[in-house]
Amino acid sequence: ILNVEQSPQSLHVQEGDSTNFTCSFPSSNFYALHWYRWETAKSPEALFVMTLNGDEKKKGRISATLNTKEGYSYLYIKGSQPEDSATYLCAPDGSARQLTFGSGTQLTVLP
Amino acid sequence: DVKVTQSSRYLVKRTGEKVFLECVQDMDHENMFWYRQDPGLGLRLIYFSYDVKMKEKGDIPEGYSVSREKKERFSLILESASTNQTSMYLCASSTLQGTEAFFGQGTRLTVV
């Protein structure tokens, strides 16, 4: 079983705060790292898929960085809004082709 | 719009029944996945397939089997349902390794 760790498990922030979460994964046999947002009563939706060491991607107020050598990725949310409340999942995509998810970071943004 | 469709949103089955969960995608994707989601455990991979008639075990395949006879359809089979298989089941598909996966709406299965 691929060991994927996400921290923190849950997070409460005030509207307007910036926040970040971590995803740790095995650095061997790396192919890509996926980030997904999962809102209550909806299906998970992809935010980013990153493949290169040092890669940095941005979508609006959300950005992510990738370090494949040490096996971690950070997800940043700038100026959190209540609509950002969701569970954020990461999944390393390795040579075995399987997509294994971490248990997620549950973000609650308080108005 | 891309679509991954799961046959049922809610399902209630009896212990010992054979249960089929169907997933269909209309994007001509090679890869398909079945996950279950339980509180505090995130999404756990049951089986995946990267081609017709190909299947690979994920992290928790025990008690499950799968079938992929056609590219667009990936079925999860519970040979003899048990109460510990009560869960939310999610299907996903992707075109190639390293591309984003698209998820179905989920099937909440209750085994009584």
Give the helices and strands, then pairings.
The complex is a heterodimer of chains A (111) and B (112).
Chain A: E1 5-7, E2 10-14, E3 19-24, E4 30-38, E5 45-50, E6 56-59, E7 62-67, E8 72-77, E9 86-94, E10 105-110
Parallel strand pairs in A: 2-10
Antiparallel strand pairs in A: 1-3, 3-8, 4-5, 4-9, 6-7, 7-8, 9-10
Chain B: E1 4-6, E2 10-13, E3 19-25, E4 31-38, E5 42-49, E6 56-57, E7 64-70, E8 73-78, E9 87-94, E10 102-103, E11 107-111
Parallel strand pairs in B: 2-11
Antiparallel strand pairs in B: 1-3, 3-8, 4-5, 4-9, 5-6, 7-8, 9-10, 9-11
Key attributes of the depicted protein:
heterodimer, A: 111 residues, mainly beta, 5-stranded antiparallel β-sheet, 5-stranded mixed β-sheet, 0% helix, B: 112 residues, 7-stranded mixed β-sheet, 4-stranded antiparallel β-sheet, 11 strands, globular
Provide an overview of this structure:
The complex is a heterodimer of chains A (111) and B (112). By secondary structure, chain A is mostly beta strands. Chain A has strands at 5-7, 10-14, 19-24, 30-38, 45-50, 56-59, 62-67, 72-77, 86-94, 105-110. In chain A, the strands form two sheets. A five-stranded antiparallel beta sheet of chain A has the order 1-3-8-7-6, with no helix packed on it. Chain A is globular and about 40 Å long. The N and C termini of chain A lie far apart (39 Å). By secondary structure, chain B is mainly beta. Chain B contains no helices and eleven strands. At the A-B interface, β4 and β5 of A face β4, β5, β9 and β10 of B.
> What is the beta-strand fraction of chain A?
over 45%
Shape of chain A: globular
For the largest sheet of chain A, list the strands in their spatial order: 1-3-8-7-6
Judged by helices, strands and strand pairing, the structural class of chain B is: mainly beta
Low-confidence segments of chain B, ≥5 residues, pLDDT <50? none
